[in-house]
From TrEMBL:
It comes from the Eukaryota. Residues 13-92 form the DUF4283 domain. This is DUF4283 domain-containing protein. Pfam families: DUF4283 (PF14111).
Length: 178
């Protein structure tokens, strides 16, 4: 059994700390198209490289944690209209060949009843889709209340809802999901 010294493992993990792992939901995108599109979209953030793993999975190695966070904070991202699901690279991640059991996605919720415009209320709505992780800055500040953007961890094999039914005293209401 191969067992690397902890120091070597730490050095290897440090190299990949600012990386993201991702795949396209429902369709494969050719590497050169991906490379060209993301260079245009992410050029303001800083430098990154794209590494091809198996089964349509990519590793995006960023030059810094700040670049990685910019990419996450300014998503969701798509190429040719196909959603790019991204998650943080983490140490002890299984070999990247079998896909994801969970993915993080930014969701946009619209037609939200005013009573839900508290962190608990918005998280409750998002929890119908999966596990809420964080909200964008405009949502946290409650500056724009026509919609909200929340990053949610969802099961990769679960059907994605386009509506969340909300019960109110005056009757049921539908919150739209994009």
């Amino acid at each position: 059994m191969a067992e690397l010294p902890e120091k070597v493992l730490e050095e290897g993990a440090k190299k990949w700390e600012p990386a993201l792992v991702g795949f396209f939901v429902g369709k494969k995108i050719p590497f050169w198209s991906l490379h060209s599109a993301l260079n245009k979209k992410w050029s303001d953030a800083g430098k990154f490289s794209i590494h091809i793993a198996e089964n349509g999975i990519f590793v995006f190695k960023c030059e810094s944690v700040e670049v990685r966070n910019w990419i996450l904070d300014n998503g969701p991202w798509d190429v040719w209209g196909v959603h790019l699901a991204l998650r943080l690279w983490e140490r002890d991640l299984p070999p990247i060949s079998s896909g994801f059991s969970k993915i993080t996605v930014w969701v946009k919720l619209m037609n939200i009843p005013m009573e839900y415009w508290k962190t608990k209320g918005l998280n409750h709505l998002a929890s119908i889709l999966g596990t809420p992780l964080y909200m964008d800055q405009a949502t946290e500040a409650k500056q724009m209340i026509s919609f909200t953007r929340i990053c949610v961890e969802v099961n990769a094999d679960r059907h994605f809802q386009d509506v969340i039914k909300s019960k109110r005293r005056s009757g049921d209401m539908e919150v739209k999901v994009e």
